[in-house]
TrEMBL record:
It comes from Streptomonospora litoralis. This is Proline iminopeptidase. Pfam families: Abhydrolase_1 (PF00561). It comes from the Bacteria. Its EC number is 3.4.11.5. Residues 64-83, 173-203 are annotated as: Disordered. Transmembrane segments: none annotated. Keywords: Aminopeptidase, Hydrolase, Protease. The lineage of its organism: Bacteria, Bacillati, Actinomycetota, Actinomycetes, Streptosporangiales. Gene3D superfamilies: alpha/beta hydrolase (3.40.50.1820).
Length: 292
């Protein structure tokens, strides 16, 4: 695979940075460009997974407000619609008709929005653990907790808010009605700062926390899309919020949930100090894409 090329595309309120691995002219109808997208995770989280697809062009990007895609409009939050429009702009800048798309976490929600709004741009979408609360029996609690984490970030800073977020990700099964009445976790217990440094530019806690989980997907548009929409979850995270949400989305679409190896970040190969099962994960992704 040729050296990585970094490119940019202008969007209202941000300049979106994206990376191209391989020669775009090598893509064809049977093997389109593969885009790997997260949110708020930037392109750096897909370095290992991208390396397993050296036989086709691979594109990664930094969502607006994350990594190199700094916001210029001063907006405090980002919506899935904005992210979906940015994805469309990147695809158009590539000069290709459509792509295969793997979306992880918030990137899965944004990718589902892209397909519902611009279905002709995607051949196959694999949406891995989209954290959308609307399909959950405890949706009201999840949305309330998401608002509380956002509000904690705005009032107390990163440490206390991130501690609450980590606690949420470790919760298995539906959230009890009394969840927010429980004592707040100690940031120090997670190695997080207890002092507020005054910054409020965290893309997860400040920009996407409320808008992502509360987004209402257009299931009718997704079901009518000409391409395939595959919903996936990790075998180790099925009982966590994102795994449960994936199962709920698949059920609403009337499709079978595809189980991938490992956990929510199963494709990671040491990025951010986290290890999944990237080789097995890539093999599972390749299998799904080959069935298109």
């Amino acid at each position: 695979m040729s050296d990585l090329q970094t490119r940019t595309v202008d969007a209202p309120g941000a300049t979106i940075h994206y990376d191209v691995r391989g020669d775009l002219s090598d893509a064809d109808a049977a093997r389109p460009v593969l885009m790997l997208v997260g949110s708020p995770m930037d392109a750096s989280g897909f370095a290992t997974l991208a390396g397993h697809f050296a036989d086709r062009p691979v594109v990664t990007y930094d969502p607006r407000g994350a990594g190199r895609s700094v916001r210029t409009d001063g907006a405090s939050e980002t919506t899935p619609e904005e992210h979906a429009d940015d994805l469309r702009r990147v695809i158009e800048a590539l000069g290709v008709d459509r792509v295969d798309l793997f979306g992880s976490s918030g990137g899965a929600v944004n990718s589902l929005v892209l397909v519902s709004r611009h279905p002709q741009r995607v051949r196959t979408l694999v949406a891995h653990e989209p954290p959308t609360a609307e399909v959950l029996p405890d949706r009201e609690q999840v949305e309330a907790v998401s608002r509380d984490i956002h509000d904690t970030y705005q009032s107390r800073g990163m440490g206390p808010a991130m501690a609450k977020f980590i606690k949420l990700t470790q919760q298995t099964g539906p959230l009890p009605d009394s969840y927010l009445d429980e004592p707040a976790p100690d940031p120090a217990a997670y190695g997080l700062p207890t002092e507020d440094d005054g910054s409020r530019d965290d893309p997860l806690l400040g920009q996407n926390m409320r808008t992502c989980s509360a987004y209402r997907l257009d299931f009718g548009a997704l079901a009518a899309a000409p391409g395939r929409v595959v919903i996936a979850a990790g075998e180790e995270s099925a009982d966590e919020m994102t795994g449960r949400a994936a199962a709920g989305v698949a059920k609403r679409l009337g499709t079978e949930l595809v189980v991938f190896p490992s956990h929510h970040g199963g494709y990671l190969g040491g990025e951010f100090g986290m290890e999944g099962k990237p080789e097995a994960f890539a093999a599972a992704l390749r299998k799904v894409l080959s069935e298109s």
